[in-house]
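One-letter codes give the sequence; the fold follows as tokens. An example follows:
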Amino acid sequence: MSSVETITNARTFAPHCQGIARMAYNQPEQIAWVDVETTGLTAENGRILELGIIITGLDLTEIKRASWVVHCSPEHLRYLDPKVRQMHTDSGLLHDLTKAHPDKHGISAVQHHALVLMRETCQSPPILAGYRVAFDRRWLKAWMPILETNLSEYTLDISCWRQVMSALGIKTPARQTVNHRTLADCDAALNEMRGYEVFRKLQGEL
């Protein structure tokens, strides 16, 4: 399937996404910590296997979280790179995918659930945050474009933040463990951000 066909198909997700319009664009008041687990590195030829989102305020206080496995046909799973297969086996994701229903856990249904979560918790498109967020945005744009357009153009990349803080001589928190499940990886990025002194002061820990 070409990238054009992929995006066209992703944008015709009725009936799941009917009636869910784009949120009014104002200054972001929330942050969406997002992570996707995928079949590989190339969005055009791959599939999203899991989506996780944690919504916080700008002060990093958690508002709501959710994750969804995304049904994937055996055909696409059959050709997983051995390293990717081992990673998703060790994390338990491939086991969870065996229970995924093609309708209840299809890409359109998961996009719908994520949009509902954001509309329930965000007054305007939230800042997209996490580790290497360009990767996640690229996959969302290919497979969940309605969700992607409801995210702010602003991003908070914790991987980049760490490099800049280190270059400035600012002490960085201990690296969080990433275990390749979406909510755990969202938590890792969020908790690393919370570890910086400015946020610890804000939270009254210093």
Confidence is low (pLDDT under 50) at residues 1-15. The radius of gyration is 17 Å.
